[in-house]
Amino acid sequence: GMTTIAYSHKCRQIAVDGRSSSGDLIASDKFKKWIVSGEEVWFLSGAIPDFDRFMQYHSGDLVGKPDFEVCCSALAAIGGECHEFGLTPSGEPWRSILPHDFAIGSGRDFAISAMDLGMSPDKAVAHAATRDSKTGGKITVFDLATMSFVGADNV
Q1: Are 74 and 40 spatial neighbours (Cβ–Cβ below 8 Å)?
Q2: Residue 50's CB: how many other CB atoms inside 10 A?
Q3: Which long-range contacts (CB under 8 A, 24 or more apart) does 114-117 make?
Q4: Can you say whether the dihedral through the CA atoms of 11, 14, 17, 18 is positive or negative?
Q5: Cα(133)–Cα(139) distance, rounded to whole angstroms?
Q6: What would the DSSP string read from start to end of 20-64?
């Protein structure tokens, strides 16, 4: 995953960076790494071309073993809870509700460590950006309690 998406269970917030890159090139620092699907907000990490296929597997539109390697994972805000989503090697979608702090993407280890030390999820993503070259740019925060983005300029 070329990003950092951090979930704080205590704060009940998800933070995501805005960096989009291709190899060593920074394509954008304001890329929106989320998809709104009805009442759900999905935050995606990985290869951008795989996002649609990943969502199709989770909606049931695609079934069976993928004929490609899916380089994607997601955290989703659903009904005020944070869920982690993925695919098994055989293409079966799986999900779990997260009862603890968690992060996905290339900067996940830095973000989780920062939250362990008491940082909020947005500060944890900012910290990850100091160590992970694939994380950076605008940080957006989503609040699970209100099921909305924090700050009017964040969407």
Answers
A1: no
A2: 19
A3: 115/6, 115/8
A4: negative
A5: 15
A6: EEETTEEEESS---EEEETTEEEEEEE-GGGHHHHHHHHHTSS-S
Q: 91 and 66 in contact (C-beta within 8 Å)? A: yes
Q: Give the β-pairing of 25-28 and 72-78.
A: unpaired
CA–CA distance, 24 with 141 (Å, rounded to integer): 26
- Kindly list the distances between the CA atom of residue 42 and the CA atoms of 12, 31, 116, in Å, as whole numbers in the listed order: 15, 14, 24
Give the residue-averaged pLDDT of 125-140.
Answer: 96
pLDDT digits (tens, 9 = 90+) for 68-101: 777 788 999 999 999 999 888 777 889 999 999 9
Q: 68: which 2 tokens? A: 């490609």
CA atoms of 67 and 40, how far apart (whole Å): 27
- With tokens 């910290």, the residue in question is 127
- For the stretch 37-55, pLDDT in tens is 899 999 999 887 788 888 8
Task: State the CB neighbour count (10 A cutoff) for residue 89.
Answer: 9
Indicate the Cα dihedral angle 32, 52, 64, 6, nearest 10°.
0
Indicate the SS3 state at residue 112: helix
**Eight-state DSSP code of residue 150:** S
For residue 41, give the nearest of 128, 124, 150, 126 by alpha carbon.
Answer: 150
